[in-house]
Amino acid sequence: MIGYVLLGTNDLAAARRFYDPLIAEIGGKIVAEQPHRVFYGTDLSQPMLGITLPFDGAEATVGNGTMVALPVASRDEVDRIHVKALELGATDDGAPACRFDPELGLYFSYARDPDGNKLAFFKIGPA
Length: 127
Known about the structure:
Blueprint: E1 4-8, H1 12-25, E2 29-34, E3 37-41, E4 48-52, E5 67-71, H2 75-87, E6 91-98, E7 106-112, E8 118-124
Parallel strand pairs: 1-4, 5-8
Antiparallel strand pairs: 2-3, 3-4, 6-7, 7-8
């Protein structure tokens, strides 16, 4: 299973201005901090999202095909979090909607953080 996912940034302070309030909106918090990275989650024993300056000192770049999907409690929350991400400086990469087979109840929205990393917010099942 997943322990954590790291996304690179070239400006940790700016990334935190985006992620601190965004993650708080879905019930997460900072669970670990270091001078060059921060981890968000519910606690250290659960999957985490980390935002980091690259260890090798090179420029952070966006992974082609890389995406972090963050579950939320309802379709309304998918809508709300998508708007919040855009307010915090994300770019829209797919408005909230049912995706794929509607009978599966896959409700997703997509955004790119200020560094260009792709995020999905989703609810599976009935509204």
